[in-house]
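User: Could you go from structure to sequence for me? I need the amino acid at each position, not a summary. Structure tokens:
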């Protein structure tokens, strides 16, 4: 039998289980002093390359949000499992102006595009600048920020996902009991499942289009994974018609990709 439960403050980690990314966010206060604290209320906002952005939620009045409001910059550091104690140390309520990192094993290193430091021991790091802050009434502050740099340990960049997951060994937050006891698992504990093609997905021999496609555009379409071809046909045909063309040409196809912010590396695959 199912039971409806009361929606309380912090509903997301009351009875409801909401596994999340564990991060330590580093900021500078207006005097240039470092602050660090864990944050998990974090989600992608704009996923395209043109204007990549991330969204974070934080308690109003927290040192992190105050620093972000005052300086417009922060760094998201993802610590590995072995550094959970250090991450928890940065969660303690220290007075403003205290550098929580002094009580941890984390090593501060310069960031590339922003002033707050990055943490050496974190295998993946994101440097951000603020675009917009939305202060919800009697609730959190929501920060939408531009992603200025994504920095990873170099050896991770050539690994396949399975090896990268175990090598990084990132903690996954499983919520807390009474804001005191925090539960975690890790990315080493994973399974993999293959996504099967949609029942109506397009096979090479079975491409149905409404407009004519030139040879280059059709070849480019075939370079796209079958499950998303139907979607791409619609996008490309809508785009071509908007541009006043009843034919989808390779040039239009590439121009559409550029407008979506798809990068050169991906587009190169279509330039025949
Ligand atoms: C694993 C973990 C995740 C947390 N995530 C958030 C979060 O997403 N938003 C938030 O407001 N507080 C979060 N907290 C609580 C803050 O880290 C805590 O209030 C901290 O003292 C804030 O420090 P600051 O004032 O230096 O920013 C989290 C704590 C832990 C341990």
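Assistant: Here is the amino acid at each position, in order:
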């Amino acid at each position: 039998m199912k039971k409806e439960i009361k929606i309380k403050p912090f509903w997301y980690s009351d009875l409801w289980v909401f596994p999340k990314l564990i991060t330590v966010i580093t900021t500078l206060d207006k005097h240039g002093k470092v602050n660090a604290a864990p944050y998990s209320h974090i989600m992608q906002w704009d996923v395209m390359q043109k204007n990549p952005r991330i969204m974070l939620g934080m308690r109003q009045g927290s040192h992190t949000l105050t620093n972000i409001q005052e300086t417009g910059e922060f760094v998201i550091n993802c610590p590995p499992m072995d550094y959970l104690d250090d991450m928890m140390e940065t969660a303690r309520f220290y007075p403003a102006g205290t550098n929580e990192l002094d009580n941890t094993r984390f090593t501060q290193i310069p960031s590339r595009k922003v002033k707050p430091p990055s943490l050496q021991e974190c295998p993946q790091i994101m440097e951000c600048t603020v675009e917009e802050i939305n202060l919800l009434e009697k609730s959190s502050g929501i920060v939408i920020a531009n992603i200025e740099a994504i920095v990873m340990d170099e050896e991770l960049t050539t690994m396949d996902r399975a090896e990268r997951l175990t090598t990084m060994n990132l903690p996954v937050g499983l919520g807390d009991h009474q804001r005191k006891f925090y539960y975690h698992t890790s990315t080493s504990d994973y399974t993999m499942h293959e996504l099967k093609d949609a029942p109506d997905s397009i096979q090479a021999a079975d491409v149905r289009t409404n407009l004519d496609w030139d040879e280059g555009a059709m070849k480019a379409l075939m370079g796209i994974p079958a499950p998303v071809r139907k979607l791409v046909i619609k996008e490309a045909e809508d785009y071509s018609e908007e541009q006043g063309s009843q034919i989808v040409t390779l040039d239009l196809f590439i121009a559409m990709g550029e407008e979506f912010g798809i990068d050169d590396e991906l587009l190169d695959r279509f330039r025949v």
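One structural detail worth keeping in mind: The CA atoms of residues 120 and 272 lie 42 Å apart.
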